[in-house]
């Protein structure tokens, strides 16, 4: 069947049949324009969807790569999941590049032909339609004016003008009609090309896309990767099913076991559970009373003006009673992460006992005479109250304090004297309090090993050595190498982490601080656990509130690293942590002086060393001389007067500062008495017979005990 056309020969005649046929073509053109506009909208949606798919794929790939920079608290840095997602991201980048190619092909083969058909052809028909209507109206008007001309000869000129006007309008109408008819006829051919070409371009682009996708994604490498991941996911799902089954069973078991805990007070039909009075650690929620107190004289005593009870989580760790609110446990950006210290249970006089409250039940209090604090707490029931009281008193009892014996139950000092101080005291000298006082027993590490006083040969030559009993609490990497607030914050976080994860066991060690290094030694086997060079210790500090906590920051650097890393180590001791910090300061000071001494010129070093040895020899001789003089008994009063009179008769030296003794004076009766019968030469110290220059032959000065 051929294509219907408008006959161009009938354009000038413009008969009603031609106009009727023209209206059919015009209606067809308008319908085609409407349909083509809808097709253009559909293709444009596909184009937008393809562009959005490209952007979404790129965003997905980037999001998968960002997984490795996320700081998941429970995900390790070398997680297999991170590397797997990174591999997926690389494959998605390949898919995204192919999708971009598809989007470009859609734009060229689908959108461009359709847009050209709409803007060039259909818009041209619309424009020619308007021009045809104008030309037709102008032709009709010119015809009407021409036909109204009268028969008089006087209107010849007017007749000629109207004839010329009709000529122009008819010619214009004829030309416009020819163009309009030809455009409508051509539209019948263009509709087939313009409607088929976009769809054909779409399918060609999709075929090319799938072919490129097959080449990029259908590799054997990707197939093996997907099979491995699928197997791994199936294994994880099976583990999750097994774990879910165990979890359901555990939930049922916990619900059955915790049935008696749902009631704050046990029901009458429930079995009686006695409180555990042997606990040395406990944690749980308690209500603490806060408010202002007014001291009123009389039998009423202390009355509470404003009372407020707050619920907090209390726990015991390292001999301390700590508290922490629920908000502090959740917030990781505030300084309240580690909770707060409520009371040091190792203070003398601390006691937990029941307390009578007018408006509350199950109330007990913790008294501290030293800090003059009275902490009033409320438990859920009577058993919880008794367990808390027994636990706190057990911790106080293990720290060495017993009610009514404050004077004899002071904290023992486990500090081991240095090697020089041991030589001065002698092997048989014992401190009067050393045997009577027992050291504090760690409630979390019941170790019975005593601190070994022997030092290894590596630090025998150190000028300063002191030993302390410490318990390691934890270490954490820090950002800088110094700062008292940094050390305190690290202590808070480590104590909170131990409490949150229920880590109460501590390792006891012997900390040996010397001018050479710092060492942690196992007291049971006397073996070295770790060693810190003094040059790597950058800062140390004690806790501002708990005097038994201290920490120090060390600097470490890997062989291939460009920057050093810093770690803070926290310990607990039985004595004041300030003493250990002072010992570390003394050791570092002596080490620095020794380092500067080694850097001095050779002559300066020998001269200074010689002066130090001279001073040591003189100090030793003076000390021995004073000891010998103290052994002499006082002479009788009469002899003192005679001796005084004889001394007044002795001649003076030329400068008037000394008495000149003669041979006769040395044999006076005052020196021949019974107690002072020993000759003067016996009072002479033997080392004085040796010249000062001879004393420099030995490297070290002899100990005083040998002198």
Automatic annotation (TrEMBL):
InterPro entries: AH/BAR_dom_sf (IPR027267), BAR_dom (IPR004148), DP13A/B (IPR047181), PH-like_dom_sf (IPR011993), PH_domain (IPR001849), PTB/PI_dom (IPR006020). Keywords: Cell cycle, Cell projection, Cytoplasmic vesicle, Nucleus. GO terms for cellular component: early endosome membrane; nucleus; phagocytic vesicle; ruffle. SUPFAM superfamilies: BAR/IMD domain-like, PH domain-like. The keyword Cell cycle applies. Residues 696-707 have a biased composition (Acidic residues). Residues 279-397 form the PH domain. This is DCC-interacting protein 13-alpha-like isoform X8. It comes from Crassostrea virginica (Eastern oyster).
């Amino acid at each position: 069947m051929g294509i219907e056309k408008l006959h161009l020969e009938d354009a000038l005649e413009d008969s009603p049949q031609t106009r009727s046929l023209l209206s059919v073509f015009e209606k067809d053109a308008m319908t085609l324009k409407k349909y083509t506009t809808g097709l253009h909208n559909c293709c444009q949606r596909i184009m937008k969807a393809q562009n959005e798919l490209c952007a979404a794929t790129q965003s997905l790939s980037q999001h998968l790569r960002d997984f490795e920079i996320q700081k998941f608290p429970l995900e390790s840095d070398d997680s297999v999941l991170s590397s797997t997602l990174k591999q997926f991201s690389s494959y998605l980048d390949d898919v995204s590049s192919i999708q971009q190619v598809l989007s470009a092909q859609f734009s060229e083969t689908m959108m461009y032909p359709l847009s050209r058909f709409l803007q060039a052809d259909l818009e041209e028909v619309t424009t020619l339609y308007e021009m045809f209507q104008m030309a037709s109206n102008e032709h009709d008007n010119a015809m009407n004016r021409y036909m109204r001309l009268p028969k008089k000869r006087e209107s010849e000129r007017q007749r000629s003008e109207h004839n010329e006007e009709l000529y122009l309008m008819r010619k214009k109408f004829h030309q416009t009609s020819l163009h309009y008819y030809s455009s409508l006829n051509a539209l019948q051919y263009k509709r087939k090309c313009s409607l088929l070409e976009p769809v054909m371009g779409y399918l060609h682009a999709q075929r090319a896309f799938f072919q490129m996708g097959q080449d990029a994604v259908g590799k054997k490498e990707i197939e093996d990767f997907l099979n491995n991941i699928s197997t791994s996911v199936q294994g994880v799902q099976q583990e999750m099913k097994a774990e879910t089954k165990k979890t359901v069973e555990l939930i049922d078991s916990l619900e059955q076991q915790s049935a008696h805990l749902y009631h704050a007070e046990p029901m009458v039909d429930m079995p009686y559970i006695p409180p555990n009075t042997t606990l040395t650690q406990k944690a749980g929620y308690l209500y603490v009373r806060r408010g202002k107190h007014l001291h009123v004289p009389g039998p009423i005593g202390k009355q509470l003006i404003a009372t407020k009870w707050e619920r907090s989580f209390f726990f015991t760790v390292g001999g301390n009673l700590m508290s922490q609110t629920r908000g502090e446990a959740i917030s990781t950006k505030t300084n309240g992460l580690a909770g707060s210290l409520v009371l040091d249970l190792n203070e003398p006089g601390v006691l937990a006992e029941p307390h009578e409250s007018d408006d509350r039940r199950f109330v007990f209090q913790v008294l501290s005479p030293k800090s003059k604090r009275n902490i009033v707490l409320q438990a859920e029931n009577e058993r919880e109250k008794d367990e808390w009281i027994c636990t706190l008193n057990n911790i106080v009892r293990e720290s060495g304090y017993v009610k009514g014996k404050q004077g004899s139950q002071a904290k023992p000092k486990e500090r081991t004297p240095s090697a020089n101080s041991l030589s001065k005291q002698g092997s048989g000298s014992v401190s009067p309090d050393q045997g009577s006082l027992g050291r504090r027993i760690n409630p979390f590490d019941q170790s019975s090993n005593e601190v070994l006083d022997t030092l290894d040969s590596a630090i025998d030559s150190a000028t300063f050595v002191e030993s302390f009993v410490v318990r390691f609490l934890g270490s954490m990497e820090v950002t800088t190498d110094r700062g008292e607030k940094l050390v305190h914050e690290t202590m808070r976080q480590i104590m909170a982490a131990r409490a949150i994860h229920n880590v109460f066991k501590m390792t006891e060690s012997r900390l040996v601080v010397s001018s050479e290094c710092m060492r942690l030694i196992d007291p049971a086997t006397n073996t070295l656990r770790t060693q810190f060079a003094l040059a790597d210790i950058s800062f140390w500090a004690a806790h501002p509130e708990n005097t038994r906590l201290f920490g120090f920051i060390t600097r470490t650097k890997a062989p291939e690293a460009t920057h050093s890393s810093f770690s803070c180590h926290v310990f607990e001791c039985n004595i004041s942590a300030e003493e250990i910090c002072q010992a570390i300061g003394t050791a570092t000071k002596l080490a620095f002086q020794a380092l500067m001494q080694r850097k001095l010129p050779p002559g300066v070093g020998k001269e200074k060393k010689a002066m130090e040895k001279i001073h040591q020899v003189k100090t030793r001789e003076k000390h021995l001389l004073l000891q010998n003089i103290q052994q002499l008994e006082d002479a009788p009063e009469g002899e003192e007067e005679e001796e005084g009179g004889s001394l007044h008769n002795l001649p003076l030296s030329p400068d008037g500062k000394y008495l000149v003794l003669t041979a006769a004076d040395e044999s006076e009766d005052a020196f021949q008495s019974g107690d002072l019968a020993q000759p003067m030469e016996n009072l002479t110290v033997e080392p004085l017979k040796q010249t000062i220059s001879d004393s420099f032959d030995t490297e070290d000065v002899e100990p005083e005990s040998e002198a």
